Amino acid sequence: MSTQTLIDEMPEEDAIVEYLKRHPKFFSRHENLLAVLEIPHQQKGSAVSLVERQLMVLREENQQLQRKLDNLIAIAKQNELLNQRIQRLISVLAAAASADEFFNMLYSTLHKEFGTDAVVVKLFDMPNPVLAGRQEFVEYDAQVFTLFETLLGTNHPSCGRLSHAQTDYLFPQSRIASAVLIPLGVPKANGILAMGSNEVSRFHAGMGTDLLKYMGDLISHLLKPWLRGV
């Protein structure tokens, strides 16, 4: 048999791959091949044995799993801290003896617990005329309402950078670079709690919002009596 005939009869790569798939114990019967087969190292440019390559792949997979686990642990710790802050906030608000005390404690506690540079509340519904003088209560304005239509429509918090119009309305003449917007009102959102930071990365779109939604619902329930004039 000529050399050319041998070359012509050599199986294609796909055939080799299929053969190895059908015979998973092939290397068990030919362990000597594991030490001599070489695979190019993608980063170093040198060749490594198949066994070394398998070990590197396993190490890389383990490192990826460890990073995912570390990330999950970090998120769990952050959520636990956030839950503790929410519980302290709710405890303080539940003890408020007046609407003035309620809002004062809301602002001071959010500043303290969340380290925010600004806290703003805007309520577009005012059933209690006694509260008409407070800055939180604003008359309905279709143009302003449009700025937060998505937030109020979904009744779910959002985090990140605000539009220029939203920033000008909520934080005029400020250096707020990122914010959390939390809808207020149950079952239908008719207000906003905004917490702003001068740092761009302080609040970002990748943040979890489930606990913030929970906080907004609790604040809304505690706010109800003061809106009714109790």
Describe this structure in words.
This protein is α+β, with helices and mostly antiparallel strands and 230 residues long. It folds into 2 domains: 3-57, no CATH class; 72-227, 2-Layer Sandwich (Beta-Lactamase). The protein contains 10 helices and 6 strands. The strands form 2 sheets. The chain has a 4-stranded antiparallel β-sheet with strand order 3-6-5-4, with helices on one face. It has a two-stranded antiparallel ribbon with strand order 1-2. Strand 1 (38-40) and strand 2 form a beta hairpin. It starts with a helix and ends with a helix. The model is unreliable at 1-7 (pLDDT under 50).
Query: What is the 3D shape?
Result: elongated
Largest sheet, described in full?
A: 4 strands, antiparallel
- Walk across the major sheet and give the strand order: 3-6-5-4
End-to-end separation: 103 Å
CATH superfamily heading of the largest domain: GAF domain
How many DSSP E strands?
A: 6
Q: Report the helical percentage.
A: 40-55%
Give the CATH class of the largest domain.
Alpha Beta
How many domain regions?
2
* CATH structural fold name of the largest domain: Beta-Lactamase
The helix-and-strand class reads alpha+beta
Indicate the CATH architecture of the largest domain.
2-Layer Sandwich
Low-confidence stretches: 1-7
SSE order, one letter for each helix or strand: HHHHEEHHEHHEHEEH
Helical run tally: 10
